[in-house]
Amino acid sequence: MKKFSITIFLTLFCAILNAQEKQWTLEECVNYALENNIQVKQAELDVEFSDIERRDAIGNLIPNINAQASNSWNTGLTQNVTTGILQNQTVRNSSYNITAGLTLFDGLRNFKQLQRARMSRLASEYSLDKMRDDIALFVADSYLQVLFNKQNLEVLRSQNDVTQQQLDRTNELVDAGVLPQGDLLEIRATNADEEQRIILAENQIRISLIGLAQLLGIKDYQNFNIAERDYDILGSEILGNQIDDIISRAREERSEIKIAEANRSLAEQDVAISKGAYLPSLGAFFNYNTRESGQGRIISGGVDPDDPTRTIGFVQETNQLVVTPNNIATIGEPLPFFDQLSNNDGFSYGFQLSIPVLNGFAARNSVRRSQINVRRAEYQLEQAELDLESNIYQAYTDANGAQKAYEAALVAAEAQEKAFEYATERYDVGLTNAFDFSQAKARYENTQVEALRAKYDYIFKIKVVELYFGIPVGELKF
């Protein structure tokens, strides 16, 4: 039992340790964000909402059926439904009815509303696709920023190791009287500045990791980390396409244009729906009703032998009394429940025609508003095409510029590396002072950092062009 408990403990411990040490790749971050990001979830809710609208439209095409039932007690002076006489009593009554209604014609608005609901769902799907593309880019940008911050920290630490070595060596040379005290102070100042930059870089990594975790919807910031690997520049061949080809492909594939086109179709459908108010509407209805009461019923009747007549008036000219037989009734128990329902039921059915004549110009104004919305949607589509074209030009130009900047940064980093090696050799033999050596080292660090920044900027901008070219998010190469 003890060994079994130890085994379980070690298994759980290893599972927790592995969970804490999980390092996320860029692909994993993108896929996780597409499933858990709040904005993506909201876009998915819009799709679900459009499904409900479609079911509402389908419901307008089928009959409405409603049933009602009531059971009440009346106490006090009420009419006896059996004898018709007002009397103090407590009476129970119940009633039941079922009503069905069906719209036969309403200017085809119900059918057009169903078509509109289908269009609305398609527009929601396009919006969801665009949101996924945007989130994928946001995640890629944030991930590459974290990776840059991490590699920037590695550069700073590596260079600080060199500074520490130079500090030790300079200290020995100053003690030996070979170098002046000022060189030692210069190296110490450089070391202090680098240590401060290392602290700032560590903080920047933590901040960028938190931002990425929030984008993914992960709340365990402390244990969240990314896989530290070098990403190659993939997909640069996309820049070999002509920009007109990219624009043409984007107009067919990008969600921005599809959303604008769907919105225009929705606006046109709204015009058709509003015009249906000009036409008559025809509906059919059917009603079944019945009732039941706890009031007693007349089971026998006849003339009262003790008082066979009763006066109901007199003749004004002759004052002659007018009498009528004085009938009495014997009240018995009410009929059984289902017998009363069967005896008291009834049906009503028919058609209802409504013809619009004058409604304060409401129908006409609704049509005009819908027509204005069509024009607005057309302008929005035109603007979306212009924006897409502008964004593609910008992305294509940025990607080409990023490529050239990266190539220039590599050349500069290589040149500064050689210059730093030369400055180190001169400093080691005392041919240059600590200030010049620190300056050469700082220039070398800056070119290394700039090369990293240019690389990840280039990778990100290639991905932007690939998305505009219609490459799905799941097929982006990193």
TrEMBL record:
Highest taxon of the lineage: Bacteria
Subcellular localization(s) per the UniProt record: Cell outer membrane
InterPro entries, A to Z: OMP_efflux, TolC-like
Pfam families in UniProt: OEP (PF02321)
Keyword Signal: yes
Coiled coil region boundaries: 243-270
Keywords linked to the UniProt accession: Cell outer membrane, Coiled coil, Membrane, Signal, Transmembrane, Transmembrane beta strand, Transport
SUPFAM superfamilies attached to this UniProt entry: Outer membrane efflux proteins (OEP)
Signal peptide: 1-19
Entry's family note: Belongs to the outer membrane factor (OMF) (TC 1.B.17) family.
UniProt protein name: TolC family protein
Annotated organism of origin: Christiangramia antarctica
Source taxonomy: Bacteria, Pseudomonadati, Bacteroidota, Flavobacteriia, Flavobacteriales
